[in-house]
Amino acid sequence: MIRVTTNNTLWQYQTNLNKSANQLYSAMGKLMTERNFDSYAANPAGATRAFKIYSSLNATNAQASNNQTLINKFSTAYSALDGAIDKIAQEMGDVPELGGLDDTHKSDRASYAQILNEGADAIVQMLNGKYSNDYIFNGTDTDNAPFEIVTDAVSGKRLLTFRGWKVDVPKNGDEYIDPKTGQPVADPDNAGQNLTNAQVYQKLQDMSKETLWVDIGMGFQVENGQVVENTAYNSALSGLDFLGFGLDGNNGADGDPNNIISIMLEVADQFESYDLETDSWGSGSREAVDRLVGKFQDAREDVIDKWGELSGKVTYLKSNQTRLNETFENLDVERGSIEDIDKADAIMQLVWAQTTYNAALQVGANVIPQSLMDYLQ
What we know:
Elements: H1 6-33, H2 44-101, H3 109-127, E1 130-131, E2 134-135, E3 147-151, E4 158-162, E5 165-166, H4 197-208, E6 213-214, E7 222-223, E8 226-227, E9 233-234, H5 239-243, H6 260-273, H7 286-339, H8 343-367
Antiparallel strand pairs: 1-2, 3-4, 4-5, 6-9, 7-8
């Protein structure tokens, strides 16, 4: 025969009541937080997997943000080139050049020269445009404007520069002359020597191929301190890569500039040298203008090709953005399957826990012995 004491009954009842209360509080907590667990100890396996998913979510979110920034930047660049090349170069470059070649417009050549100069300035202004606070077409140097048209200290002509370097530099061994000062530039790597045109040409070539790698979800990797190229995306846009630099054939017989801005400035100089009273070209010639107009068309086509490549990059980035968004959504669904509750099931658990707790209280009213104080009311 087992003896059940009052103390034993009360202890057993209190244990069961506390258990029912804990189940009720747990069910209420799940419904309020909408989480299956709120500590690592509650579900070690689920918490470990959720932590990995959160890491992937953060990485994907950062990659999507980088990718969207590139879409906006490249789209802005595309619009700038559209305005500069398709509109300004056509209306303020091609049209006045062809008009100035027409002998019936001899008297307008000075006006055409002004239009060409203004068109060159307008293109430079557009290529010096910003996205956010960064200059778009200056490669890795996003803090400074890339292009400037300066008056050459030696010839007095207007010249195009990129980061202060003359764009129309021949690829030869002659000393490089700074267009602003008219003086040679010291070679920082060789004391007592000056930079040559070939060295400056190499600088321009290097600046046209600058890279600024961004992680957009291509499996970003670094080896020996260098980014593996096919695992990241180059966000740098160099204006030199779009316009070109150097002279025709570098050391060609004509020695004409390769980029449309410099060609416009050169044609403007040719038109300005024309003397209507004597019907003479001064330092220029009609043949030179005719040659430059043909090269202007070629240079413009080259820029249009680069413009098309930029459009392809924007298309790729938009496709990649869709992929990243889908990846984020799939990861979030997987996270939800681990952490988030089934609301219908959680409500049922709460109702059951509430019923159990109420039943425990009702049992207590019948099990706990009444004392004299219960009757003194």
